[in-house]
UniProtKB/TrEMBL annotation:
Protein name: Anti-silencing function protein 1
SUPFAM superfamilies: ASF1-like (SSF101546)
Localisation: Nucleus
Molecular functions (GO terms): acetyltransferase activator activity; histone binding
Family note: Belongs to the ASF1 family.
InterPro entries, per database record: ASF1-like (IPR006818), ASF1-like_sf (IPR036747)
GO CC terms in record: chromosome, telomeric region; cytosol; H3 histone acetyltransferase complex; nucleus
GO biological process, one term: cellular response to stress
Native source species: Pneumocystis carinii (strain B80) (Rat pneumocystis pneumonia agent)
Keywords: Chaperone, Nucleus, Transcription, Transcription regulation
């Protein structure tokens, strides 16, 4: 059983310019006292063909954690555009919001992100006008209503027991995002885990304000 459960994630600035910071309001429940902080990370998948362009946008330690329902704001810088192949800036990609306890990741939330140009910067056939557009023109839209959530069964304070590899939840295939679906799968498979993954749903619940210290 997980001691920490995400109740809701609200993306506050969506849609937004590509170069705008990411802002997440995260509500979670803690069932028992924890000795250590929770570590949250946001990763941007920069290319569907190589993990070399992935960028860790920010990380945040949250704690001490009181028992009960808690809320905090997680802000992260946008990706560095110069580290992404220009051909991969536009179109659909993935961001991964993860949380770990004592260096053991126990939840991962993946969102598809659509980066697009306004119509005035497109040719008549709908393709980008390479001579006119720059990264400052790109708008991002996070598909917040369709997160892909995987929870890993880890050992918490004082717990023992056998650990198992993760199991991913199923999602419907979509031709437009199929290549990024494979990229998300590759990201999960290439990372070593010893936890059992369990599907969870994000639900809206009333919560009390949590001040990070």
């Amino acid at each position: 059983m997980s001691i920490v459960n995400i109740l809701s994630i609200d993306i506050l600035n969506n849609p937004a310019p590509f170069l705008s910071p990411y802002e997440f309001e995260i509500t979670f429940e803690c069932l028992e006292s924890l000795e250590n902080d929770l570590e949250w990370k946001l990763t941007y998948v920069g290319s569907a063909t190589s993990t070399l362009h992935d960028q860790e946008l920010d990380s945040l330690l949250v704690g001490p954690i009181p028992i009960g329902i808690n809320k905090f704001l997680f802000q992260a810088d946008p990706p560095t555009a110069e580290l992404i192949p220009k051909k991969d800036i536009l179109g659909v990609t993935v961001i991964l919001l993860t949380c770990a306890y004592d260096s053991r990741e126990f939840v991962r939330v993946g969102y598809y992100v659509n980066n697009e140009l306004p119509g005035v910067l497109l040719r008549e056939d709908g393709t980008p006008d390479v001579e006119k557009w720059s990264v400052e023109d790109v708008q991002r839209n996070i598909l917040a209503e369709k997160p892909r959530v995987t929870r890993f069964n880890i050992r918490w304070d004082g717990e023992g027991g056998e650990e198992m590899p993760p199991v991913q939840d199923d999602v419907e295939e979509d031709e437009e995002i199929y290549s990024m679906e494979e990229q998300l799968d590759d990201f999960l498979e290439e990372t070593e885990y010893n936890e059992e993954a369990i599907e969870i749903d994000l639900e809206e619940e009333e919560s009390s304000e949590f001040n990070n210290s």
